[in-house]
Amino acid sequence: MEPNLPDVVLWSIPAFVLLTVIEMVSYRFHPDEDAAGYDTKDAATSLTMGLGSLGFDLLWKIPILAVYMGVYELTPLRVPVLWWTVLLMLLAQDFFYYWSHRGHHVIRILWACHVVHHSSRKFNLTTALRQPWTSATVWPFYLPLIACGVHPAALAFCQSANLVYQFWVHTERVGKLPRPFEYVLNTPSHHRVHHASQGGYLDRNYGGILIVWDRMFGSFAAETERPVYGLTKNIATHNPLRVATHEYAAIARDVRAAGSWSERAGRVFRGPGWQPVPRPGAEAAVPVPAPVSVQAAGGPAPVRAEAPAPASVTAAVPAPAPEHTR
Fold first, then answer.
1. Does pLDDT of 234 surpass 80?
2. Distance of CA 35 to CAs 27, 42, 204, 255, Å?
């Protein structure tokens, strides 16, 4: 029998709207020059991506539910839906969410889905709504739960609860919480680190509800310096279709330009920043550096430092960087 569990996302929509309005008003009356704040076009893009994800998720759920139900019918195990088993299922779902989230950062074809959520250079409650339209890459990570006897409807409830929890952590209006909360839970401070593009913050704090998984598996970073949000190579568009597909297009370009099948596989299945090792003997002319203009702050007019023109020099150089965003 299918569990009768509430649709927590639907019930939470009024709270989403109210909290977003409160946050917008707070920036109007108490601006923070250091905070990313709001931008009308950016917020509109995030809202459009969120609405679009609802429609696309309905399409993806049809084949995914068929697979889940098939596995559920094959397994002899059954987990009853009781108050204490629901708590255990929430804990287990959060554990597998951590690994799904981590996988979507370190495998490029999965990153192409998740990059949508990181594509804003703002960090506010509308950023939480900037969801991908290709979330069909998530379902394999939860197959162990179905195989252990968790009903697909119970898993959907846990996923929705996890998603609702993460809404409030997308804000700069909440500082650090008391230490016990910061140690156990994913908080706005931890999630600001996750959305930052600085090198020391990249690929950190994957937790959904709990941050303990990051502490256990070595991916935790505390918020020390103010984050710079977005990608290491930002996209200059608010077009929802381009936001949803730009990394897939970059992968296709890199695969077409690849010189071998191993490089093609690397462009798809390795990390977003992966580069092939240059082939031995590959040579290319090293360009002469352009003249450099040097000017100290408040100092005299720039002094042109002319670089000498060396003789023709050749050296092995790596392949050009792919057009992916990270």
1. yes
2. 9, 15, 21, 38
One-letter amino acid at 114 equals H
Which of 53, 52, 45, 43 has its CA nearest to residue 17? 43
The C-alpha atoms of residue 47 and residue 220 are separated, in whole angstroms, by: 29
CB atoms within 10 A of CB 46: 28
Query: Are 318 and 275 spatial neighbours (Cβ–Cβ below 8 Å)?
Result: yes
Q: How far apart are the first and last CA of the chain?
A: 44
Instruction: Look at strands 303-305 and 292-294 and give their pairing.
Output: antiparallel
Q: Say whether 302 sits in a helix, a strand or coil.
A: coil
Whether the CB-CB separation of 8 and 157 falls below 8 Å is answered with yes
What's the pLDDT at 18? 96
pTM of the entire predicted model: 0.84
Q: Is 173 helix (H, G, I), strand (E, B) or coil?
A: coil
Show Cβ contacts of residue 56 under 8 Å, excluding neighbours closer than 6 positions: 133, 134, 135
Arithmetic mean of pLDDT, 240-246: 97
Nearest to 125 by CA among 202, 228, 50: 50
Residue 125's contacts (CB-CB under 8 Å, 6 or more residues apart) are 16, 19, 20, 23, 167, 168, 170, 171
The dihedrals phi and psi of 285, each to the nearest 5 degrees, come to: -65, 135
Spatial distance between the Cα atoms of 35 and 22, rounded to a whole number of angstroms: 16
Structure tokens at 208: 């959904």
Q: Which contiguous run of DSSP H or E holds residue 14?
A: helix 8-29
Residue count of the chain, please give it: 326
The region of weakest confidence among 38-42, 62-66, 309-313, 321-325 is 309-313
DSSP letters spanning 195-244? TB-SGGGTT----SSBSHHHHHHT------SPP-BS-SS------HHHHH
Mean pLDDT over residues 86-111, rounded? 98
User: Percent of the chain at pLDDT above 70?
Assistant: 86
Element (H, E) at 179: helix 179-184
Q: Of 154, 152, 166, give the one whose Cα is nearest residue 50.
A: 166
The encoded tokens of residue 212 equal 């303990």
Residues in a beta bridge with 229: 196
